Every structure is written in C-alpha cells, then in structure tokens.
Amino acid sequence: LYHINTGGEALMLDHRERQYLEEHPTLHFAAVVNERPYSYMDGNGEFAGGLRAIVDRVSADLGVTIEIVPVDSAEDAYAALADGTADVLLNSRWSPGWAITRDYKQTAPYMTSYFTEVTRRSGKPEDPMVAYWSQRLGETTLSKRFDEDHLKRYASVEDSLQAVADGHADVAYLRQDVAQYETFAGRFPGLVANGTVAFATRTAMTMP
What we know:
This protein is an alpha/beta fold. Helix content is 30%, strand content 30%.
C-alpha cells in the first residue's frame, strides 16, 4: 500500500500479496469519471484522461487486468466498494484519518491537484455564492472557507459552471486542468479561470 517508486526499481511484493494477485487476475477499479481531461469515458466507452496512465502503470506493475467501474460521484464509488462491485477506488481524496474511521485503507498519495477559480469575466463579489459538485470537496475544503448558506451543490462540473454562467452562483473551484479545458472548450464563453492556486488536494487509491 505504501510503496513509493522514486528510482525505477522493481516493485517488491510479499508472499501474501503475490498470492492475492494470483487469485485475482482481474481487479475492478471504481473511478469518478466526470472531469475532463482528468478522468472521463471517451466516445468509445473507454476510460480516458490523465488517470489512464496511472491505471496502465498499476496494471503493468501488478501483472493484472484492471477493469474500470465508472461512477458519477465519490458516494457512488464508495457504494461500489461496499457492495463488492469494485475492489479499489482509483481517485479518492487522500485523508488517512478519515479513512481509518471508516475502516478503509489508502495508498500513499500519487497525485496533487491544484484548484483554481472559475468566474464570470466580471469577476466575483467579496461574499460570493460558490457552486460545487463534489460532496467531499464541499465537506473537507469549501465548508472551511465559506458559510454554509454560500455553498450550493450541483450534479456535475458542467452544472456548476452553468450556474456561474447564469448568475445563480459567482464562482466554482475546479482542478486547474479541468478549469482550463472547460473554459477553452467554448461551451462557457462568458467564464474565465484565473489560474491562481486557491488550494490543493492529494489523490490516493482507497480499498476496504
């Protein structure tokens, strides 16, 4: 769980780990897939985005086939872990204390994501209404920065941005690559990402 490869050396597994992989040649990874270009399903129904390289590397290192279980939210991903649909949650927020209290195990973090503001071109007011889609992000980060009555959750990244575009909210916080993709794609011409890092989160894999 906590191996960090910094020098290109081979991954060393103990007997129990090797036996488990021999008995489970295919592993099912739940992945939250609604953030282009970070994690999404392409037009052919294949898992794509920056996290594709992580999946391919894990598959090669462990010598197993990985099948993606696409889900729309972290809540759906944890439900997939609970009912056995998935063996691993690919892209969860790294929070060891939180995981321990819920009897989950987490890997070492493998990625740091930097979040930035997306606003209308006129900017945001001093006391903005914040649109967000991720419950975990709302609970762990945004709730510490904004009063509850200034936070409004939406079903997706696109819905959050539409709320900002329509004036129902003033700002959305997205990963920098997602913010750049969404504002350059042309669907929200009235929105801009300022590029400044507002906060960062670390991503790890989670399993029962």
